[in-house]
Write a structure and sequence with these properties.
This protein is of the alpha/beta class. It has a single domain, classed as Spore Coat Polysaccharide Biosynthesis Protein SpsA, Chain A, CATH 3.90.550. The chain is 44% helix and 17% strand. Helix 2 links the parallel strand 2 and strand 3.
Length: 235
């Protein structure tokens, strides 16, 4: 099984070098057959140069430089389409994700699941030092989705996840922003793919500026939810 790790990065010069080295050590430790796809999303700091430096250093690192139409979702879509692995893992460039969760993702995929989430809201997981208002927002949206769609997992807004690449093309998530996380989850659920979750511990970024805007994403998440719910009602 080949693994493709897709990392969207917009102005992450302080975090990206640390993340790449940490992932490289995890790959070696676990002897993973893998590639790392760095998606530089319209950065105006030294992120593009950092991506190219690691591409030259490691033969399993590849880079994509995006110009125009920015957004985490757009970067993840483009990176996933370039992935050659059987399984794709999305990791954020801000050092928020616990890389020790990755082997557990892969074990769950090996056991027959199609999409496995890193969950901050189940036993063993934690939202860590994420601001309280963001935690309430995230948990509330997932609870709403569980009530109205029947999805069983507890953290659909966290982009940190692993999935079989073939389901990406069947589900076709299209959101260009952070809303791609719940959109992909809900569409995969309605398409009756096997979903699972692994507890993970989240860490709020220490360097750089967050791209998540609470009010804007509240509207976007609601839009995605209503669209998916309508799909469920008419199917």
């Amino acid at each position: 099984m080949k693994i493709s790790i897709v990392i969207p990065a917009h102005n992450e010069e302080d975090n990206l070098p640390i993340l790449i080295e940490n992932i490289w050590h995890l790959i070696k430790k676990n002897r993973l057959n893998s590639e790392i796809i760095l998606v530089d999303d319209n950065s105006n700091d030294s992120t593009p140069e950092i991506c190219d430096k690691f591409k030259r250093r490691y033969d399993n690192v590849f880079t994509i430089h995006r110009v125009g139409n920015p957004g985490m979702g757009n970067a993840l879509i483009e990176g996933t389409k370039k992935a050659k692995g059987d399984v794709v893992i999305w990791i954020m460039a801000d050092l928020s994700d616990d890389l020790n969760t990755i082997p557990k993702f892969l074990e769950r995929i090996d056991n027959g699941y199609d999409l496995v989430f890193g969950s901050r809201y189940i036993k063993g997981g934690s939202p860590g030092d994420i601001p309280y208002n963001k935690t309430i927002f995230s948990k509330s949206f997932t609870i709403l989705s569980r009530i109205f769609t029947g999805i069983k997992v507890h953290d659909i807004t966290n982009a940190f996840r692993a999935f079989k690449k073939n389901i990406f093309y069947k589900v076709k998530p299209a959101s260009g922003d952070f809303a791609i996380s719940p959109e992909f989850a809900l569409k995969a659920h309605l398409a009756k793919f096997r979903l699972s979750e692994i507890p993970t511990i989240y860490k709020n970024r220490k360097k750089g500026v967050t791209k998540f805007k609470m009010f804007k994403m509240s509207i976007r998440y609601l839009s995605v939810f209503l669209s998916v719910l309508l799909q469920k009602l008419i199917s």
